[in-house]
């Protein structure tokens, strides 16, 4: 196994930069550069010396194999975060026999291979590193801490027991079965199925927390939609003018509302029009607004054509500075209340989120539910189908195992690690 090294902190000027080394040579390299190896998990100040030159004064931390992030012997060098220091230390590391630069995600990959993290935890780690909002951070941390694996293990144990009970009856096929196991089997399947259905129902909310919500501002031309977007964004993202039909393309602005990642969409004013280009803009507006998670109808003088509010959609009068209740993108009146309302609507969606956060998880859960339904069907068909019922339950178990990467893992790894950068 190669010993790998990389800059683990971000590139560029900083107070401190962290270089990480993992593999069999990690501690020996520390000895070469620092003169001695500090006791594990105890930070020690050392001069880094290579080629007769002092490179920097570093805080050195080592971890023993079996007690580190990767599961291998690890060393971390906290150096002064200058481009020149990092370069000099990287050069010194590159000159050591048996060391090579880590590939993107390679530290985490080793953690997975050594059983320090399961596949879902690796995904949680990737999400945590990418997290930009409070809700993303909380959710990613829950996944990183192993929440999916813990739940999956409970479900798995129940289904394995159900399959074992059924298999036990197969051996008695020709005789009277000593006890009827069907009630217990059905109970176990029902418990797991109920949990998985809840997870599936909450997966859309969890995926929204991860990927963000879309909120579309719609309404008649000249209602002040673009002015409102600019006010919410705090910058001139969209062109505004007194000419009705100014906005044609959908303008996107990313922001955080109530701790959630939100993409606000400014859209073309909705009306009947002879103008070919404006009509294309209106079609886009309607399509994007329909696909969005929430719509804010900003009302003006004209009627809204082609789209009407539904469900949680917000309807609010614009240009409230000219009189009446509502919001004004021009003066900021009512904007805080509008943001609070959007936040409340989106937060109510996130309440249903369970532990699964990705399409991959949802598909695995759906596979398991499907297999459990086949099992129930086979059980209904009587004891002569017991073998098939047990096989269906084993398929359900495999679905749960794929959640944490116990099966079907190889083809997923490249995809998952492609989102990691070097040093992670
Ligand atoms: N008094 C007042 N005028 C506003 C307000 N918001 C926008 N306006 C004015 O109304 C006109 C239209 O504003 P826009 O933001 O371009 O309206 P829009 O809804 O994006 O228009 P389209 O993109 O053409 O559909 C401009 O002249 C704005 O200055 C407001 O809150 N109060
Ligand atoms: K306009
Ligand atoms: Mg506009």
Automatic annotation (TrEMBL):
GO MF terms, alphabetically ordered: GTP binding; GTPase activity; metal ion binding
Residues engaged in binding GTP: 222-227, 241-247, 266-269
Main subcellular localisation: cytoplasm
Coiled coil residues, start to end: none
SUPFAM superfamilies: Folate-binding domain (SSF103025), P-loop containing nucleoside triphosphate hydrolases (SSF52540), TrmE connector domain (SSF116878)
Needed co-factor(s): K(+)
Keyword Metal-binding: yes
Alphabetized UniProt keyword annotations: Cytoplasm, GTP-binding, Hydrolase, Magnesium, Metal-binding, Nucleotide-binding, Potassium, tRNA processing
Binding site residues for K(+): 222, 241, 243, 246
InterPro entries for this protein: G_TrmE, GTP-bd, GTP-bd_TrmE_N, GTPase_MnmE, MnmE_dom2, MnmE_helical, P-loop_NTPase, Small_GTP-bd
Residue span, TrmE-type G domain: 212-347
Gene3D superfamilies from the UniProt entry: P-loop containing nucleotide triphosphate hydrolases, Probable tRNA modification gtpase trme, domain 1, tRNA modification GTPase MnmE domain 2
Enzyme class (EC, first level): hydrolase
Function: Exhibits a very high intrinsic GTPase hydrolysis rate. Involved in the addition of a carboxymethylaminomethyl (cmnm) group at the wobble position (U34) of certain tRNAs, forming tRNA-cmnm(5)s(2)U34.
Subunit structure, as described in the record: Homodimer. Heterotetramer of two MnmE and two MnmG subunits.
Family according to the record: Belongs to the TRAFAC class TrmE-Era-EngA-EngB-Septin-like GTPase superfamily. TrmE GTPase family.
PANTHER family: TRNA MODIFICATION GTPASE GTPBP3, TRNA MODIFICATION GTPASE GTPBP3, MITOCHONDRIAL
Protein name (database record): tRNA modification GTPase MnmE
Protein species of origin: Paragemmobacter straminiformis
